[in-house]
Amino acid sequence: MNFIYEPLTTPSLTERYIGELLPFREISPVLLKGPKGQGKTMQVFAYAMENDYKLLIFEASEEARYGQIIGQFGLKGREAYFSLGVIPTAIQYANSGERFILLIEELNALSPAAQKQLNSLLDLKKGVTVKEIGQRFELHNNSDNFLVVATMALTFYGGVFELNEDLKSRFNIVSVGYPPEDKEREILSQHTTDNELASKLVTLATQTRTSSFVYQLSTRDLVKAVKVINRLGLKWGLKALEGKFEEEDRKTFWERVAGIFGEVK
């Protein structure tokens, strides 16, 4: 299955979120749209932690079907059982009065047919009927205890779909871009005391974002590179970044590295 049936307890973060949190309660349902690796999910976790929300996470994928979204039968030994999908499960928790966030990861990975099935959850005046068990699930009220947040990464690669207009119109959409360079350096400073290294890595990433590179280095990429550098040295951290790029961009990548870091041994 590709979603967590039981909500996570109020999450904790292994590192501090840098930046101002969005007012999720006031703008739900909201779609965070932007480059991968820029802390969209981390921001939701930080908000949940600060405001005592639990999380119910649905990891969208092209393979998500009716069973994951509405519900499906299964077998345990010789016993048949019915497992509710993410929409009726979310409605149940919303009606329980608990404070929780439904986090839909990578919304644009859902097929057009699967996207249509989410409309009933986002239109709070309606519910969803699970015909297999003859039961209807409806929200009792539009409570601040129940928030819906989705993420969507911008990508040049496959495996994603255009959002249909019906679904898009049900979200408030917030663009999440790359952080300012000083904020990005502050993020890296949680993982290294070498300020010069952090500054050079941010410069390298900025150059991949403002030129013809197909792949653009994310803040997450830089954090992972710093962790490799801490263990194995600069050469291996840069080689880990090199692997992100298509073959035709790797020569240009090393030219940019040489201009920023000099000769790397």
Overall morphology:
elongated
Rounded mean pLDDT score: 85
In CATH terms, what is the fold-level topology of the largest domain? Answer: Rossmann fold
Tally of strands: 9
> Largest sheet, if any?
5 strands, parallel
CATH homologous superfamily heading of the largest domain: P-loop containing nucleotide triphosphate hydrolases
Number of domains: 2
CATH architecture of the largest domain: 3-Layer(aba) Sandwich
Strand % is: 15-25%
Q: What letter string, H or E per element, gives the SSE order?
A: HEHEHEEHEHEEEHEHHHHH
The stretches of 5 or more residues where confidence is low (pLDDT under 50) are: none
What is the straight-line distance between the termini?
A: 46 Å
CATH class of the largest domain: Alpha Beta
Count the helices. How many? 11
Class inferred from helices and paired strands: alpha/beta
Percent in helix: 40-55%
Strand order of the largest sheet: 2-5-8-1-9
Q: What is the alpha-carbon Rg in Å? A: 21 Å
